[in-house]
Design brief:
about 450 residues; alpha/beta; six-stranded parallel beta sheet; five-stranded parallel beta sheet; 22 helices; 15 strands; elongated
């Protein structure tokens, strides 16, 4: 993040960092690795951290490798050989996970929660893992494993005298036997684990996967990685990020207005956004003004910057948005995706050429009131108004032909880019079109086939 600050030198560094975090932590891992003693939790957690570039957090790291406000209090319990209260553990974890590295890179929580009370405390603190991996093996196997367990005090990595002995002689020499490894102690720990685990399972069952630890380590790690890289389908309400694409005159602006009005999302017309930037005399507005004044296309990088500012605004982040007028080709679509603005509903409006001409070439505007009319569908109410109506030069037939030709020249690649998009027959009553769009938004379909009206 510091490197980005030095490169971009934003006017408001704090807001820049907030936006940076918002845009870059959506896919950060939030994983719990659980299991009985000697099941390989540490090995799996450390391997995941290296592979995913995430932060590993365990009871040992919280007590001996972190400098947190509550660390000394927790250590005091440990020194008195007293049990550390669940609430103190939960507060320690919450404090650690609120640090920037965990927010940015994600975290792997090893061996915690141990019981249902701890799990409830984590949830009440807003700590909710996306994936919970539970390793399992028979008690006989775990007791046997435990007797050969060895620890590298320098790296914290765990080895085994039979199954996983290091090849480096220096590492071999410094390995130590962990404390409390008698068969009696491990049996007590296993009994406690089996007593507490059902309560943890009840809380995390929808995001939990059990993996057999009694198999080659690479098979275990492969299965764990495959699971934590999957995305769970949520039944919770989502923040709408809706994109409308279609030829001129297909009704994108009307449908966007209807969606925004009913669902409270932010209605964003890219062309209008550029005009507002010029009118407000912003820095970017000054840069694009010559292009707009001379009727030239605004460069994609400037459009993307203006669009990114608007989509990063609080109302868009919280309420969602419906966007039209951008992207118009695959290059713009890729730029939008690189800026981390990925729509979760995309609609392509289909309208025959004759209908486009009929809708646009007969549009008129009243220069006095700004009211729009149509010579066929919405004629002027009085001869006086009819006499003063004017046609926008963009609505002349030769200009419409150019715009439509440009649209269809680029649209095939854009349709391939948004392969999960819905295709809408826009040549019918606007309310019928709206009902179809609304059904696709509130009832998301899991399949990837294109949907047609």
């Amino acid at each position: 993040m510091l490197e980005e600050l030095l490169i971009h030198k934003p006017d408001d560094p704090i807001q820049y960092m907030i936006n940076h975090l918002k845009q870059n932590n959506d896919d950060a891992p939030r994983i719990c690795v659980l299991g009985p003693p000697a099941s390989g939790k540490t090995t799996v957690a450390m391997w995941l951290c290296k592979h995913l570039d995430a932060i590993r957090i365990s009871q040992e790291t919280l007590l001996f490798k972190e400098i947190l406000a509550l660390t000394e209090e927790a250590k005091a319990y440990k020194e008195r050989k007293e049990k550390i209260p669940n609430a103190l553990w939960a507060n320690l974890i919450q404090e650690r996970l609120s640090n920037v590295d965990c927010i940015k890179q994600g975290w792997i929580l090893e061996g915690f929660p141990e019981n249902q009370e701890q799990a409830w405390m984590l949830q009440s603190s807003g700590i909710i893992p996306r994936h919970v991996v539970v390793l399992y093996a028979s008690d006989t196997v775990l007791i046997e494993r435990n007797s050969g367990k060895r620890l590298d005090p320098f790296t914290g990595e765990v080895y085994h005298t039979t199954f996983d002995w290091p090849s480096d002689p220096l590492v071999q020499q410094r390995l130590v036997k962990p404390e409390d490894l008698s068969e009696q102690e491990i049996s007590k720990k296993l009994l406690k684990y089996h007593r507490n685990f059902p309560g943890v399972f009840q809380i995390y069952q929808k995001v939990l996967k059990s993996i057999n630890a009694d198999q080659p380590s690479m098979d275990v790690l492969s299965q764990v990685l495959t699971y934590v890289q999957t995305r769970h389908r949520s039944a919770a309400p989502f923040t709408p990020r809706i994109l409308f694409c279609g030829p001129p005159g297909s009704g994108k602006s009307l449908q966007a207005a209807l969606i925004a009005q009913k669902y409270g999302v932010v209605n964003i017309c890219c062309g209008q956004l550029l005009k507002e930037a010029v009118a407000d005399k912003t820095k970017l507005g000054e840069l694009i003004k010559p292009y707009i004044d001379n009727g030239y296309p605004v460069p994609d990088n400037l459009v993307t910057k203006i669009l990114a500012e608007r989509l990063n605004a609080l109302d868009c982040m919280t309420n969602g948005w419906v966007l039209y007028g951008f992207p118009r080709d695959i290059e713009q679509g890729e730029q939008l995706q690189k800026s981390h603005f990925i729509p979760n509903r995309v609609f392509f409006f289909n309208l025959p050429y004759e209908s486009i001409m009929e809708r646009l070439s007969q549009r008129r505007i009243d220069p006095v009131t700004g009211e729009r009319y149509h010579t066929t569908f919405r004629p002027a109410p009085t001869p006086e108004i009819q006499a003063r109506l004017r046609q926008n030069p963009r609505d002349k037939e030769e200009n419409i032909e150019k715009r439509v030709e440009t649209y269809y020249r680029n649209i095939k690649e854009l349709e391939d880019f948004y392969e999960d998009a819905f295709h809408v027959n826009a040549d019918q009553d606007p309310h019928v079109v709206f009902e179809f769009i609304e059904s696709c938004i509130i009832k998301p379909l899991p399949c990837k086939k294109l949907k047609s009206l």
